[in-house]
Design goal:
Elements (H helix, E strand, L loop, with lengths): L1 E2 L13 H10 L11 H20 L8 E4 L2 H12 L5 E5 L4 H14 L2 E5 L10 H8 L5 E5 L11 H10 L4 E4 L11 H4 L3 E5 L11 E5 L37 H15 L2 H20 L3 E4 L11 E5 L4 H10 L2 E2 L1 E3 L4 H7 L7 E4 L7 H20 L1
Parallel strand pairs: 1-11, 3-4, 3-5, 5-6, 6-7
Antiparallel strand pairs: 2-8, 7-8, 9-10, 10-13, 12-13
């Protein structure tokens, strides 16, 4: 298979991940933080080393401020639900994923939130920074920003926007689902209060892994309460970190896989340079391709390895099915981000065909994709 759906979940995973997962299931691993036997201590070690690795990746001084979750959606729901109060004002971008917008819409109904959106350039999705600064003057209680779009890959000027918000004393939550492992992210240096991330995309980990960094844990009520293995005499949730946000049994096999992938990425820096070269090749080939329109990509902006295209003839469903018949995995539709498609002008067409090559995509696979797109165009012209 030619796998070009890495914006949804990465594949293949880091070499050796399957073996790590298998060993984590076949070997006795106990419940972390709850036992003194060797199996439990082995689980404790995995969790500790993973937390330390994530803190190192994001430049976080105190690893206990990193909470582990089943994914970025879970992390975002925890922060948004636990931080926002009745009648507060939220400012977000126009390029947000539904993992942000659906919780906000629900909270708007339940807590009468006021929600404003930062306008973006229709040709790229890049935020209007002048409008952003004016909207900050309205003193929102929380700013929510995507670090990079899952629709067209636009990278926000995150450091600049974060520091601007910090100067005005506005708390900031960043959705880094598409950015973690792809671009530098330094929440403590940039004044980010909450950084939510996925483990199964750019970090190459298994599904069911993610987490968040939190600057001040006391400002957020936990979403899930229960057993943590700590302060078991008490029937109230522990306030200590990270236990405050980590009730229930952790996904030890998944987190062991994520730790393995982080170690792999740390020792494989040349992979990124090669992947960027292949991404540039795909970008050039798509621009040369007749019969297709590239959505939301301009020369003067920075992007992750995500492309959205539309055929001039035919339709997305037929094109996706045709590529599937060639064993090329892509995704078509609105990609759980209708607001982004409204900005880019692709909402009425039902979205786009998204191409998201990964670290292991080859030049040959890119050329086979281009040949298949040419063949589909020829078939639509013939008919």
């Amino acid at each position: 298979m030619i796998y070009l759906d890495n914006a949804a979940t990465s594949w293949p995973k880091a070499p050796g991940t399957a073996e790590v997962l298998s060993n984590a299931i076949l070997s006795p691993l106990g419940n972390p933080g709850r036992t003194s036997h060797s199996a439990g201590i082995s689980a404790d070690r995995i969790i500790f080393e993973l937390r330390e690795s994530l803190a190192h990746l994001f430049g976080i001084g105190d690893s206990s401020l990193v909470a582990l979750t089943p994914g970025c959606t879970s992390a975002l729901n925890t922060i948004l639900s636990g931080f926002l109060k009745k009648g507060q004002k939220v400012l977000c971008s126009s390029m947000e994923h539904n993992s942000v917008m659906r919780p906000l819409m629900q909270l708007q109904q339940e807590r009468q939130l006021q929600i404003n959106r930062i306008p973006s350039e229709p040709e790229s999705g890049y935020p209007d920074l002048k409008a952003f600064e004016k909207l900050l003057d309205e003193k929102p209680d929380l700013l929510v920003l995507t670090a990079a779009s899952n629709v067209n890959g636009i990278i926000f000027p995150l450091e600049q926007m974060c520091l601007t918000a910090r100067k005005k004393g506005i708390p900031l939550c960043v959705d880094a689902a598409q950015a973690a492992g792809e671009i530098p992210l330094y929440p403590e240096n940039w004044g980010i209060d909450f950084l939510c991330f996925a483990g199964h995309k750019g970090l190459l980990g298994p599904a069911g892994c993610g987490g968040f960094y939190i600057r001040d844990p006391e400002r957020v009520r936990p979403l899930i309460l229960g057993g943590t293995g700590s302060r078991s005499r008490e029937e109230i949730q522990p306030e200590i970190m990270p236990d405050r946000f980590e009730s229930g049994t952790a996904n030890i096999p998944g987190f062991a896989g994520l730790l393995h992938s982080l170690n792999f990425l740390q020792s494989s820096k040349t992979l990124y340079r090669a992947a960027e070269e292949r991404c540039g090749r795909l970008c050039r080939r798509l621009h040369e391709l007749e019969g297709y329109r590239i959505i939301g990509r301009s020369k003067d902006r920075d992007y992750t390895r995500v492309f959205s295209i539309l055929p001039e003839k035919g339709n997305l469903t037929e094109l996706t099915a045709f590529l599937n018949s060639k064993d090329i995995a892509v995704r078509s539709g609105l990609h759980c981000a209708p607001s982004a498609h409204r900005v880019l002008g692709s909402f009425e067409s039902g979205g786009t065909l998204r191409l998201s090559p990964g670290l292991f995509t080859t030049n040959r696979e890119i050329e086979l994709l281009i040949e298949s797109l040419k063949e589909y165009r020829w078939l639509t012209l013939k008919n």
